[in-house]
Amino acid sequence: MNYERKVDVMDSLAGTQSFYEDADDSRRKRTRLIVAVVLIALALAAAWYAFSASKGGAAGADGAAASGEGAASIPSITVVVPGRQSVEATIATNGTIAARREMPVGVAGEGGEVVRVLVEPGQWVDAGQPLAIIDRSVQAQQAASLAASIRVAQADAKLAQAELERAEALVSRGFISKADMDRKRATRDAANARVRVAQAQYAEATARNDRLNIIAPAAGLVLTRDVEVGQIVGAGSGILFRMARGGEMEMLAEMAEADLQRVRVGTRATVNPVGTDVQIAGQVWQVAPVIDPNTRQGMVRIAVPYSKALRPGGFANAELVAGTAQAPMLPESAVQSGPEGNYVLIVDDKNLIQRRPVKVGTVTDDGVSIASGLTGNERVVVLAGAFLNVGDKVKPVVQKSSQ
Fold first, then answer.
1. Closest C-alpha to 216, from 249, 247, 243
2. By CB neighbour count within 10 A (0-12 exposed, 13-18 middle, 19+ buried), where does 87 fall?
3. Checking CA distances to 397, which of 75, 91, 170, 340 falls within 20 to 30 Å?
4. pLDDT of residue 51
5. Residue whose C-alpha is closest to residue 288's, from 280, 296, 278, 276
6. Is the Metal-binding keyword given for this protein (predicted)?
7. Cβ contacts of residue 130 below 8 Å, gap of 6+?
8. Of 220, 279, 281, 210, nearest to 245 (Cα)?
9. Is the CB of residue 191 less than 8 Å from the CB of residue 153?
10. What are the angstrom distances between the C-alpha of 345 and each of 36, 77, 283, 380?
11. Average pLDDT for residues 99-119, to the nearest whole number?
């Protein structure tokens, strides 16, 4: 019986110990759970705080960037207000170079065989200078014969004069009648007349011989040569040489009817032969009094002095100064060109880019004059026009116009 009580007591102690062990395990589990929940809550709070901070910073950065981009998107553009300046009104034209006074030289005499040609194209000659020599062997003999006939006629005239003088000494003595005296005077007069005829014939032959040679009618420049040694020439041989009198040249320019009204005799011009950089000063010396009804153009003749760059038949450009006019003057960089023609970009009152078609006038070292399209009070873009579009907003920076 004591044994059974002891066993019951031990069983009771064992149950109590098991109860306390179970209670400790439950307490530890609750502690770990609470710690885990707290850690998760802290992690979530930290994550939320970090997300909020980054979002706020990004928003601030985006706002600052947007503000900076907005300021940088409006470029500063240099503009000029050209005003109006006095510029020379010029007319551009082109045409053909020719001799101002061309002299065709041919056979003036009876002609013959050419034995010498003395000049070549491009040479200068004086008035009366031989250009080609014609054979004159036959003509020379004829002239010699006529010269001899003069001497024969002079001898006959001298004899007739002597006989007349002897007869006059005898007529007072009655040895010679008055009729004989009249015949002797007539014989003397006829002999003198034959002398004059022979002299005239000789002079004629000499003149014909002198005309055999082909000579320059005036001083000038030989342009062409169309004769060779051995060639038989005559009155029908045509033009053998062409010359420019005094070497003077001219430009024959056809101009529109409207431009022709602005040109006067004496108008200054600058001629530029094609293929050269030579600028030759000249002036208009003749304006056509009529207009071609088919082309509606008229001829203007511009006199220019001799230059090696000028060759008759060649092509040349010219600028005629037709007075002065008031017009805006712009730098060349301000004028753009497109399929519709020339234009400029201007800045309006709202600082927006606008496009304005213009007509270009004179182009000089100082710039480009605008014949029409601008009043001179606009703000014209000087540079960077190719990078701007109509409607772009800009910040204009006014540059002083060169006067």
1. 243
2. buried
3. 340
4. 55
5. 296
6. no
7. 118, 213, 214, 215, 216
8. 220
9. yes
10. 73, 11, 38, 6
11. 89
Residue pair 358/335 in contact (Cβ under 8 Å)? The answer is: yes
CA distance 141 to 146: 9
Q: What is the pLDDT of residues 321-362, one digit of tens each?
A: 877 777 888 888 888 888 888 898 999 888 898 889 998 877
Whose CA is closest to 397, among 71, 74, 78?
78
Q: With H, G, I as helix, E, B as strand and everything else as coil, classify residue 135.
A: coil
Tell me: pLDDT of 177 over 90. no
Handedness of CA 151, 152, 153, 155 (dihedral sign): positive
CATH class of the domain comprising 103-135+215-246:
mainly beta
Q: What is the pLDDT of residues 224-275, one digit of tens each?
A: 999 999 999 988 888 999 999 998 999 999 998 888 888 889 999 999 999 8
Torsion from C-alpha of 365, 370, 374, 376, nearest 10 degrees: 40
Q: 137-211, which class in CATH? A: mainly alpha
CA nearest 97: which of 347, 333, 282, 353?
282
pTM exceeds 0.90 for this model: no
Q: For residue 70, what are its two tokens?
A: 């907005």
- 32 phi/psi in degrees, rounded to 5: -60, -40
Report phi then psi at 143, rounded to 5: -65, -40
| Rounded Cα gap, residues 9 and 184, in angstroms | 220
Query: Counting every residue, how long is the chain?
Result: 403
> How is domain 247-324 classified at the CATH fold level?
Elongation Factor Tu (Ef-tu); domain 3 (2.40.30)
CATH of the domain spanning 76-87+327-399: 2.40.420.20
CA distance 125 to 214: 13
At 180, the pLDDT band (50, 70, 90 cuts) reads confident
d(C-alpha 23, C-alpha 123), whole Å: 140
What SS3 class is residue 347? strand
For tokens 């511009």, name the residue: 302
* More reliable by pLDDT, 168 or 393: 393
- Comparing CA positions, the residue from 327, 326, 328 lying closest to residue 380 is 328
